[in-house]
Write a structure and sequence with these properties.
There is one protein chain. The chain has 2 domains: 142 residues, Rossmann fold, CATH 3.40.50.300; 64 residues, Orthogonal Bundle (Helicase, Ruva Protein, domain 3). The protein is built from 8 helices and 5 strands; from the N terminus they run H-E-H-E-E-H-E-H-E-H-H-H-H.
């Protein structure tokens, strides 16, 4: 059985490792791909600021695992209000458990204890684990020091946000998924005038897609300026 709790990201498809804009994160991509091999690292911990692609990578790892016939679970702890710690019971029988946004449970003893117990069961079953947070394991304000120390047992990798070249590539990739051609000059025009967080870029391309479909227009600077009311 494969369990997965999908996280809405405003995308038209499930994120994959192949469509992640790598930027300065080649080491993390290589580690994730190798982790699915029998000789790969069984515990990965990815951390970085909001917008660096943590959720994309964890969902992409689950997608890659499923393509190999592996059973996986994705747990978005930022949405734990809709879940219960008891949901972690039995996940050690899967091949991969991906736990996103660990920092959101810091100070919640029930969740910390449930995650600590899951970690130990996964180690006993040799279940692959990948975690994400906005900071490294040592900096997590967890009430259980043993959980903090265990999260540091594996390979910890810092994710780097996209630079301007990466953001331009992301904009054009998002447009291409919607069968839109976004020329370099138009993409640079947008980056100079719109918020640069990846979720904002997703929203921008969505708005342009709707406007382009409605007016049957190509994405030019005048059209983009008028559609987004940029002055």
């Amino acid at each position: 059985m494969s369990r997965q709790l999908p996280l809405a990201l405003g995308l038209q498809h499930m994120p994959g490792l192949d469509d992640f804009i790598i930027g300065r994160n080649q080491v993390a991509i290589d580690a994730l791909r190798h982790a699915l091999d029998t000789t790969g690292e069984t515990l990965l911990y990815l951390f970085g600021p909001a917008g660096c692609g943590r959720s994309h990578l964890l969902l992409g790892q689950c997608a890659a695992a499923k393509q190999r016939g592996l059973r996986c679970a994705y747990l978005p702890l930022a949405e734990r209000a809709a879940m219960a710690p008891q949901m972690l019971e039995g996940l050690e029988t899967l091949d991969l458990v991906a736990v996103d946004d660990i920092q959101t449970i810091a100070g919640d003893r029930d969740w910390e204890e449930a995650l600590f117990a899951l970690f130990n069961r996964c180690r006993d079953h040799a279940t692959r684990m990948v975690f994400s947070a906005d900071r490294g394991p040592a900096a997590l304000p967890l009430r259980l020091p043993d959980l903090r120390s265990r999260l540091a047992w594996g390979l910890s990798l810092s994710l780097q946000p996209l630079d301007d070249a990466g953001r331009l590539q992301l904009l054009q990739s998002l447009a291409a998924r919607r069968a839109l051609k976004l020329p370099d000059d138009v993409a640079r025009y947008l980056l100079d005038r719109m918020p640069r967080h990846p979720k904002d870029l997703v929203d921008t391309v969505t708005r342009l897609d709707q406007a382009s479909l409605a007016e049957k227009r190509r994405l030019t600077i005048p059209f983009v300026r008028d559609s987004l009311d940029l002055r």
